[in-house]
């Protein structure tokens, strides 16, 4: 098996920062993972796509961790756009920051629709576009935030393959797919899935923590207070400043 040393070093760096920043672990555990796990089906197989540094497995040890590149802490090497699972075999498909990295995001959504059991759930945390987050993503983040692309258009045999590096991403993709303007178009291409949650969230705590940068402006002892303020004021800032979105799509409880 060929080893992608660049990817392995990238994920290893994330794991080192994770261990060194307790406030980051709390944000993921209490805000990201708690949301994911609250909507999961508790029976059947759970799969994480784009597992990367493998943090979800610490919160859900039974999850099957997969990624496009090999890492020693993951179980399966798999392309999210062509999952190696049988039809109607997976109860939960989890993803954190995966959809906006894919060359053909609709291909992954169709794969999720295929592999989920009736009543199974696709549960994602992704970037979200608001006036404030667009400014942050456009000018202070290494990934693109391009609102001009057409992610719901699937490739056809007449089109050339989409070329991209694994870590390239467009943070506008989830909003383009599931924002109010194009949501019906996306769901029209996914006749077996229905949305259970499209919930923008995430602002003060994550920004102050600086994410996976080595430094942080949020000491762990202040996190509970900042998190409490964030939750209490979320109706005010969520429409204009949310950085992320919690997405849950359920497969209709009947065979397609």
Would you kindly provide a written description of the structure presented here, covering whatever features stand out?
The protein is an alpha/beta fold and 256 residues long. The chain has helices at 5-20, 22-38, 56-59, 105-115, 131-140, 173-178, 183-188, 204-209, 223-241; strands at residues 46-49, 64-67, 76-77, 90-96, 116-127, 193-201, 244-251. Strands 3-2-1-4-5-7-6 form a seven-stranded mixed sheet. It is globular, with a radius of gyration of 18 Å. The model is unreliable at 156-161 (pLDDT under 50).
Topology:
Layout: H1 5-20, H2 22-38, E1 46-49, H3 56-59, E2 64-67, E3 76-77, E4 90-96, H4 105-115, E5 116-127, H5 131-140, H6 173-178, H7 183-188, E6 193-201, H8 204-209, H9 223-241, E7 244-251
Parallel strand pairs: 1-2, 1-4, 2-3, 4-5
Antiparallel strand pairs: 5-7, 6-7
What is the strand content? 15-25%
* Number of helical elements: 9
Main sheet record: 7 strands, mixed
Mind telling me the C-alpha Rg? 18 Å
| Overall mean confidence score, pLDDT | 92
The helix fraction, in percent, is: 25-40%
End-to-end separation:
36 Å
Low-confidence stretches: 156-161
Shape: globular
What strand line-up does the widest sheet have?
3-2-1-4-5-7-6
Structural category is alpha/beta
């Amino acid at each position: 098996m060929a080893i992608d040393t660049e990817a392995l070093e990238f994920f290893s760096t994330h794991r080192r920062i994770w261990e060194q920043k307790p406030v980051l672990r709390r944000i993921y555990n209490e805000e990201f993972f708690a949301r994911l796990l609250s909507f999961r089906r508790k029976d059947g197989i759970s799969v994480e796509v784009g597992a990367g540094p493998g943090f979800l497995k610490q919160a859900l040890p039974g999850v099957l961790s997969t990624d496009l590149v090999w890492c020693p802490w993951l179980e399966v090497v798999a392309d999210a756009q062509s999952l190696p699972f049988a039809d109607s075999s997976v109860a939960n498909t989890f993803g954190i920051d995966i959809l906006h990295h894919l060359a053909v995001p609709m291909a992954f959504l169709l794969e999720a629709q295929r592999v989920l059991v009736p009543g199974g759930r696709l549960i994602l945390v992704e970037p979200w576009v608001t006036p404030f987050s667009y400014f942050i993503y456009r000018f202070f983040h290494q990934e693109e935030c391009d609102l001009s692309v057409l992610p719901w258009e699937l490739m056809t045999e007449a089109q050339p393959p989409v070329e991209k590096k694994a870590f390239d991403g467009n943070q506008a993709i989830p909003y383009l797919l599931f924002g109010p303007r194009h949501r019906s178009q996306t769901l029209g291409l996914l006749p077996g899935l229905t949305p259970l949650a499209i919930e923008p969230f995430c602002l003060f705590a994550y920004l102050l923590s600086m994410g996976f940068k080595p430094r942080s402006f949020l000491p762990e002892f202040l996190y509970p207070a900042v998190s409490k303020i964030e939750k209490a004021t979320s109706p005010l800032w969520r429409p204009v400043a949310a950085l992320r979105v919690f997405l849950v799509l359920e497969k209709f409880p009947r065979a397609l």
